[in-house]
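Internal QA ticket QA-208
Title: Verify multi-chain structure generation after dependency bump
Assignee: T.L.

Test input:
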Amino acid sequence: MMSIEASPSLSSVFSRIARRELSVALRNEGQWLNPLLFFVIVVTLFPLGIGPGPNTLSIIAPGVLWVSALLSVMLSLDTLFRTDYLDGSLEQFVLAEVPLSLIVLAKIMVHWLMSGLPLLLMSPILGVSLNLPVSAFGALILSLLLGTLTLSLLGAIGAALTVSLNHAGVLLSLLVLPLSVPVLIFGASAVSAAASGQAVLGQLALMAAFLALTLSLAPYVCAASLRIGVAGSN
Amino acid sequence: MFKWIHRFGSPPFVYRLSGRIAPVLGVLCLILMLTGLYLGLVVAPADYEQGDSYRIIFVHVPAAWMSMFVYVVMAVSSAIFLIWKMKLADIVAQASAPIGASFTFIALMSGSLWGKPMWGTWWVWDARLTSELLLLFLYLGYIALRNAIEHPQLAARTAAILAVVGVVNIPIIHFSVDWWNTLHQPATITKFDKPSMHPSMLKPLLIMVVAFQLLYFYNLLVRVRSGILQREKRAAWVAKELEN
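Actual output:
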């Protein structure tokens, strides 16, 4: 384990945890590659299911991209805390003298770097394939930036609640998807509005507000649930 | 001064008290519900626009109100359980979840039945129906999470956190769905927002609202009693109680 000096500053704790998470994640390509592939494949399924008409596609593109991103983030959440729970690191995090919520936040941020950011970078390419007007790309990327961060934070709550279960997969989505409806509504509507040349600042501002709310509350909720999960298993 | 409150933490006391109150609530509920249904379905005149189909509000509106009320009860008792570790609060939350889900389901069903003659389809993505559907998902998520975790203590505390997270989110979800709805389909008929309701229609509605409230508390007490028995099954007082 890492050596922690007498009173580590919060920012150094954050960066150490983040670096540990990042190196663990980078050694396991599946962790960032699989959600990304899932995103691409799900988006591909829609034209196959609905038909290749460019006009239809450009109408459904914002919703398709957003729903696929949502599902892809859900898929990647399952292992967020479970591997640490199974190998005992989580217990050490709970016992550590630094705030658990800070450690949790570092883990969530790395999770977003590994799952949200690739989606963000991939989305314009998929937008092109769905005939999304170029004018909507800015809104697409901005709304996904705000939205996937919020989804990672919200999803972390679900992952923390189900940490003691062997297989949370579907249950996790069941818990988190209803909570993520606001993000989906405003995210998809920002992209649609931009595609039809309307102002998107309102939607993006609301999404930023959701992000601020979840960013300030979710780490504490996650920490509380993880404490319960770790204590309950003994 | 707090002695009075502390008695409610004692399972035998609550078990006996609720055993005495529940039948009273049940009978009152039955009387009010029969009166409300009689006044609503027989006495009240037909609406001049909607005909007889408006009468579904006597079930729909109370059920929809209760669906939200029960979630708040669930969240508040979950918070009490998390903060003060009061076991009874958890039993209340656990007992409320299926009742609340049923009220939500009744509201959805009756809304959809009402939609058929009014809108011509069984389902319209109306803001209130959609919020109600999402509320049903939240209830089902709570129940599913509770069932998935085997360890009862762990399940109780985990589910309590979910209930509190849910109650923070419900207003946000409701607001988003409202906004989404006005954006996508303007000028849907506003259902029950009549500026004024004739007293002959309002009176049965209010009676039904009280009756549904009593129905909830009656069911809650019955379920809380069996919840207490289940958890205290090894306690001496339970054996004694069940002997009689």
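Spot checks passed. Chain A has a mean pLDDT of 90.
Status: verified.
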